[in-house]
Specification:
71% of the residues lie in helices and 0% in strands. It folds into two domains: 72 residues, Rna Polymerase Sigma Factor, Chain: A, CATH 1.10.1740; 91 residues, Winged helix-like DNA-binding domain superfamily/Winged helix DNA-binding domain (Arc Repressor Mutant, subunit A).
Length: 178
């Protein structure tokens, strides 16, 4: 791909920046840091746009850059945090206030359990089950083959079930929550 115009890149930024920010926020759980890392992602994307060969979707390529930027940040900070559930809790108009509260508590329990898994399990669960990327897209983002994504997802779900059982939670009900 040739050098992209500033106007064309501005369109890419407008279309994808909120989604990239949301993904980064899931990893770092800090608003200001997520904003900074989102900017860093797009600076790198602009700088290396000529290397984008179109083999994947532009969004998948941006998520891969944002993942690398976030992981670099987390390594420097020597920690990995999960995310606050309040920002991502979707409510149905049909739910009563009590149902909303119960669902929120269950989602919080689920995310707390995920936070205790190893990083590769957290990443694959975020990408596959929370952000709903396909196996192929997840493989591209993580730089894994598709078989590794399938195996790691299966192992991550098994580890999550074990973690939920350890906490005395009914995992079948918790894993169905959206």
């Amino acid at each position: 791909m040739e050098r992209i115009s500033a106007e064309a890149f501005e369109g890419i930024y407008s279309e994808y920046s909120d989604r990239i920010y949301g993904y980064i926020f899931l990893l770092v759980n800090e608003k200001e840091v997520a904003e900074d890392l989102t900017q860093e992602t797009f600076i790198k994307a602009y700088k290396y746009m000529s290397q984008f060969n179109g083999e994947s979707q532009i969004f998948t390529w941006l998520v891969r850059i944002s993942r690398n930027v976030a992981i670099d940040y987390l390594r420097k900070k020597n920690r990995f945090k999960f995310f606050s559930i309040e920002k991502f809790q979707l409510q149905s108009d049909d739910d009563t206030p009590t149902e909303i509260m119960i669902k929120g508590e269950k989602i919080t329990l689920l995310y707390e359990a995920i936070r205790h898994l190893k990083l590769s399990y957290q990443e694959v669960l975020i990408l596959r089950k929370i952000k709903e990327f396909s196996i192929k897209e997840t493989a591209e983002i993580l730089n894994w083959n598709e078989n590794k994504v399938k195996i790691t997802t299966s192992r991550a779900l098994a580890a999550l079930k074990k973690e939920l059982q350890k906490r005395g939670e009914t995992h079948e009900e918790l894993l169905r929550i959206r």
